[in-house]
Amino acid sequence: MWRESLALGLYRLLAWLAVPWVRRRLRRRARAEPLYGEHVAERFGRYASAPRSAAPPGGAPLVWIHAVSLGETRAAAILLRELRAHLPGMRLLLTHGTATGRAEGARLLGPGDLQAWLPWDTRAATQRFVRHFRPDIGVLMETEVWPSLAAACRAAGVPLVLANGRLNARSHAGARRLAWLARPAYRSLAAAWAQAPEDARRLREVGAPVAGVLGNLKFDLAPDPQQQALGLAWRRASPRPVVLLASSREGEEALWLQALGALGAEARTVQWLVVPRHPQRFDQVAQLCHAAGWSVSRRSAWANAPQAADIWLGDSLGEMALYYRLADVALLGGSFGPLGGQNLIEAAAGGCPVVMGPHTFNFAEAAALALQAGAAERVADMEQGVRRAIALALDGAGRGERSARCTAFARAHRGAARATAQAIARLLPARFFHRPPAAPGEDAGDWPRAGS
Questions:
Q1: What is its pathway (predicted)?
Q2: Which whole number is the average pLDDT over 81-110?
Q3: Which of 128, 157, 412, 436 has its CA 20 to 30 A from that of 231?
């Protein structure tokens, strides 16, 4: 115990000493993404609003969800729909660590909801955060377990849970190396619900109280039907099949352009579309394409339809459903460098088969399931990926079958959102509890009864 206390004390000292560095980093990032320069005081546990009073008996709960970035915020949106159905009148406190997450999260807010930056993990900032908002439960999405924040919640009696939990091999090894610091943080959780059995095993090994394997929330995402309809209309109007480089990360576009150059005329048998993962890189990617000798048409310049160009650049946020429906096949960004891969479930839900590189450790279970279902293929590197994507796109006879495999795969793994919302509701005091009407075939015993 004394070793854990010493480790936490040293960690808190280092976090406090890092505050000037954090402030400088925020100023630098704000030059490209101005949102990083807004509400900076929230990063250190200081807020303009009045502190919240404790919820009165019979009142509605304040559910705090932390979604660090864009992907976690989209998963939170899926869970939030179920939570609002099961907890009518609930208020939401939504926190983030990145500008893309906060911008996306603003779309989820309703009357009375709150949004803030998650505080830097110093003892003082996290304690001020918990005292100010007084959440009735905290829900961390996927990976974000911070030692000082966990300790502040435990001291204040706020149940803190990990939803859609995942822990890849690299993070697992790091948590085990820092076991004196990480284990108490994971052990302080009220519950953890894992995406996959392997995530559950790793989470248990670092001390988390794993309460179940509920699957991946992102399978419950329903693609925007208007975006899908528009994407399909644009695809039908394209004279060539469309290949998408989806959610590309820094360094991958250069590999992709190098592969296109090596293929020569073969690379021009399809229409290329690239959507960078981070919006601050849209201009940079456009410049890379121009420098490689390719003409570019940007989504932001399209009025009613894509403009003719060698490469279409998807420089918009929140339109991946459109891009996946526009494409015949997608190269999975983040998987061609040691970055862990991006979410392939959204592609499958849109009926778009995926070609992925060797690095998918962030979504290992989903990647393995997609391979088994025929919704994805794996290649060794970007050059092989480009060649395979072109071959699939030009195979018109097999296009419908591959798309059907993708949508069937996505549908087969739904249900995590409802199960997670039920599990969260069980941890709230009985005065907050509301059981919706039973669905056909639902066991009423799945829900706790008032006063239980």
A1: Bacterial outer membrane biogenesis; LPS core biosynthesis
A2: 95
A3: 412
pLDDT tens for each residue of 115-164: 999 999 999 999 999 999 999 999 999 988 999 999 999 999 999 999 99
Comparing C-alpha atoms, which of 277, 258, 241 is closest to residue 397?
Answer: 241
Helix (H, G, I), strand (E, B) or coil at 88: coil
d(CA 367, CA 361): 9
pTM listed for this prediction: 0.84
State how far the Cα of 405 lies from the Cα of 409, in Å rounded to an integer: 6
Check: CB of residue 377 under 8 Å from CB of residue 370. no
The sign of the dihedral angle between the CA atoms of 102, 223, 215, 378 is: negative
| The pLDDT of residue 57 | 61
Residue 39 gets the label, from left (phi > 0), alpha (psi -120 to 50) or beta, of left
Q: What distance in Å separates the CA atoms of residue 343 and residue 218, rounded to the nearest whole number?
A: 8
Contacting residues for 37 by C-beta, under 8 A, at least 6 apart? 26, 27, 30
| Structure token pair of residue 280 | 């601050």
Query: What burial letters (b/e) apply to 87-101, b meaning 16+ CB within 10 Å?
Result: beebbbbbbbbbbbb
- Write out pLDDT tens, residues 258-268: 999 999 999 99
The full set of domains in the chain, from first to last, is: 33-48+58-215+415-430 (3.40.50.11720), 225-412 (3.40.50.2000)
| Spatial separation of the C-alpha atoms in residues 315 and 444, rounded to whole Å | 47
Q: What is the DSSP letter of 381?
A: S
Strands 376-378 and 354-356, by their bridges, are parallel
Length of the chain: 452
Rounded distance between C-alpha atoms, residue 363 and residue 16, angstroms: 33
298 phi and psi, to 5 degrees? -100, 140
DSSP annotation of 56: P
Instruction: Please compute the mean of the pLDDT values over residues 244-252 and round it to a whole number.
Output: 97
pLDDT band at 436 (very low <50, low <70, confident <90, very high): very low
Q: Is the pLDDT of residue 447 over 60?
A: no
End-to-end CA distance of the chain: 34
- List phi, psi (to 5°) of 213: -110, 105
Residue 1, amino acid = M
Among residues 447, 441, 443, the alpha carbon closest in space to that of 422 is found at 447
* 424 in Cβ contact with 137 (< 8 Å): yes
DSSP 245-268: EEEE-TTHHHHHHHHHHHHGGGGG
Order of strands across the sheet that contains 242-248: 296-298, 311-313, 271-276, 242-248, 329-332, 354-356, 376-378
